Amino acid sequence: RITVVGSINMDVSARTPSLPAPGETVAGTELVLGRGGKGANQAVAAARAGGDVRFVGAVGDDAFAPELRASLQADGIDTDTLRTTPGASGVAVVTVDDAAENTIVVVAGANDSLSELGADDVAAIEGADVLLLQLEIPVPTVVAAAEAARRGATTVFLNPSPVRPVPDALLDVVDVLVVNESEHRALGDAVERAPHVVTTLGARGARHRGPDGVVTEVPAPRVQAIDTTGAGDAFTGALAVAWRDGPVAAVRRAVVGGALATTRAGIAAPTAAEIDHAAQDFA
Ligand code: ADP
Asked: Is 51 exposed, middle or buried (0-12, 13-18, 19+ CB in 10 A)?
């Protein structure tokens, strides 16, 4: 069982030949709505990779909220601990031009209202094998969730994204830190506080450093990458599900999950069957 405590957004993306300058209006050619937010994306990735997933988070009471809730349920995620708060859901307003240059405005909305955990949330954390955390909700809530996990026997995964200061109090209760190379650099020596550090290396795969200090590099399968959006989230979801098989086995599976996500447009985490199939091909 995996519990995710994190963000959920509606991504509203407009395509336009060229991005508007301040004060300018341009015609768009396409509008795409899609569920986003690192918490929701990692929850979906874990569910597709075969996990039994619960989501602790918040949506607003606007028109996006029912769609966001349904998008989690469509992947079999338990949303009993997804609360509805007055006001707007989290929204990312994205513009993309023909040169693939973009602008993004993220309005945290309901994600920012997640300032404390209820009894049901704590029960969902304590009853899980794995707790998956990111930094798109208030940091004190992330710390409280990690501490609740420690009181149970729940393994705490933290993907410290977006990059922002991480309190030592949080790093000290993390079991597995999952970082890309820029997050690794931003944290510096602080990564050493975590018993396990998994660093994703893009097309080069990933690296695991365990409590014994042993470092294992796992190459990524060679694929035709067309869109790396969501690769890190697909990696993290697959890693969390496979962790029970041991860290290195889990990283081997996660690199396949991450690589498959890059072969599809948008946020598209693979299923367990797709990962199984690809893992055989790449073996
Ligand atoms: P992020 O997207 O968070 O910056 P990375 O770029 O390190 O993270 O990618 C995460 C994982 O996705 C990698 O560890 C790898 O498994 C997979 N991946 C990303 N880019 C490629 C690629 N070009 N080819 C194969 N696998 C990739």
From this structure: buried
